[in-house]
Specification:
Elements lengths: L5 H20 L1 H29 L2 H38 L1 H6 L57 H85 L3 H13 L10 E7 L4 E7 L9 E7 L4 E6 L2 H26 L7 E11 L6 E12 H4 L9 H7 L3 E2 L21
Parallel strand pairs: 2-5
Antiparallel strand pairs: 1-2, 3-4, 5-6, 6-7
Helix pairs in contact: 1-6, 2-3, 5-6, 7-9
Length: 424
């Protein structure tokens, strides 16, 4: 299959994201999610009950075991509900392939693909916060000189004055020593603070330098994003102009964007290849659909209490064949409708379409394509159909399509006459 072009790939990724969002909002998916939650709740409740039964005394053991068994059955039934809601959702998507595209306008306004650069917020982290400066040192109190009390009364007459003088001299010496020690202490603490201030200044200078570098890098990245957005928009503008002037490559790219906009169910993925002939204004397309074995085959799940098993009931063979055949036929009409509807400027006047399965041939072991539908449709003819009320296989026969007699068994359509000879 051909690789999607640049804008087709961008649109495809956007559509995948939108599909996931729609799936989260869909009623069927909400039911499935609810079933998953209920299954998980029931399973955990059963586990707790089993643990309680193991821990209970003999008198309560039987009651605990009975409750554990009930909750186990409830958990298994919730698991079945989860499986069945998922199955119902899957089949609903496959059975509505054509209906799903009729609900939307397939036209792509290319101007909406233009983009503006989106810049993340500048987040320098810790570099944005100034480093706190060191606090001024908290100094203990300076020493205070206290004069020894002079002698009183008779103490002064009996040598007290000399003792007092000696005491004063000793106090003054002690104070002087204390002052010198204090001054040394203050000087040391001040020096420590000065060194801390110097380190803070260096660290802050380094932070500011790194912040400036981070801001510079952020600006460079912003400029790169701006340049990339501008380049994309300029390329898109050229693409729009080329499309207006019927450049075949631009028409093919637009078709690729339309097809990338067509999101199929996960259980039924499709791939495309296409080319456009300007001289005939015909688009030649190949659509690859999955093999029948890729689709689910279960009708429903049920819980068998006697065996404590979840068993699957298979769909009847006819139901499997009918669903697959219908999906193939609806894919053909859906593809034709999407291209014609999206091409408002009528660049494409006809489509030669082949829907088939790419597989490894059982007989040769080599890759092969099994054509299941081959059809040609003109714009004027196809635009007259009311696809909401048609039977797809009847519409394809009306167009003279070559159809597989048994798509489910990969019986190839008779394409010997070629797509342009069909209906003659």
């Amino acid at each position: 299959m051909a690789r999607r072009g640049f804008f087709a790939e961008l649109n495809y990724q956007a559509q995948q994201a939108e599909k996931r969002q729609r799936q989260q909002q869909a009623a069927a998916v909400r039911a499935h999610n609810a079933a998953v939650r209920e299954s998980d709740r029931a399973r955990k409740a059963a586990e707790r009950a089993q643990l309680a039964a193991q821990r209970s005394n003999e008198a309560n053991r039987k009651a605990a075991e009975k409750e554990a068994k009930r909750l186990h059955i409830e958990a298994r039934e919730a698991e079945v509900e989860e499986l069945n809601t998922e199955l119902t959702s899957t089949y609903d998507e496959i059975d509505r392939l054509l209906e799903a595209t009729l609900e939307v306008d397939d036209y792509i306004d290319l101007e909406t693909l233009k983009s503006a650069a989106v810049h993340p917020e500048f987040a320098p982290g810790v570099l944005a916060t100034p480093i706190k400066p060191p606090l001024a040192p908290h100094l203990r109190n300076a020493p205070v000189y206290t004069e020894p009390e002079p002698p009183k009364g008779l103490a002064g007459a009996f040598g007290g004055k000399k003792k007092h003088a000696a005491a004063v001299e000793a106090a003054q010496a002690a104070h002087a020593l204390a002052v010198r020690n204090y001054e040394a202490y203050v000087a040391e603490r001040t020096a420590e603070h000065d060194r801390a201030l110097e380190k803070h200044a260096r660290d802050e200078e380094d932070r500011l330098a790194k912040l400036a570098k981070a801001q510079e890098q952020y600006q460079v990245e912003c400029q790169q994003r701006e340049a990339e957005a501008q380049a994309r928009n300029e390329e898109l503008t050229k693409f729009i102009n080329d499309l207006a002037f019927d450049v075949p490559v631009a028409i093919e790219e637009y078709v690729g964007i339309v097809l990338s906009n067509s999101v199929y169910p996960d259980a039924f993925p499709v791939e495309y290849d296409h080319s456009f002939d300007l001289s005939t204004r015909e688009l030649t397309m190949s659509v690859s659909v999955p093999e029948p074995s890729a689709l689910p085959t279960v009708k429903e799940y049920r819980y068998v209490k006697a065996k404590d098993e979840i068993v699957a009931t298979q769909l009847p063979a006819k139901a499997q064949k009918d669903r697959y055949s219908s999906a193939v036929h609806e894919t053909a009409l859906r593809t034709l409708d999407e291209i014609f509807e999206a091409d408002r400027a009528a660049k494409i006047q006809s489509i030669a379409l082949t829907v088939g399965v790419n597989r490894v041939a059982p007989a040769t072991g080599q890759p092969e394509t099994v054509p299941l539908v081959q059809v040609a449709a003109g714009r004027d003819t196809f635009s007259q159909f009311n696809l909401a009320d048609v039977v797809p296989v009847a519409t394809l026969k009306h167009l003279g399509a070559a159809l597989s007699k048994n798509p489910f068994d990969l019986v190839p359509a008779d394409t010997a006459r070629g797509v342009r000879q069909q209906g003659k």
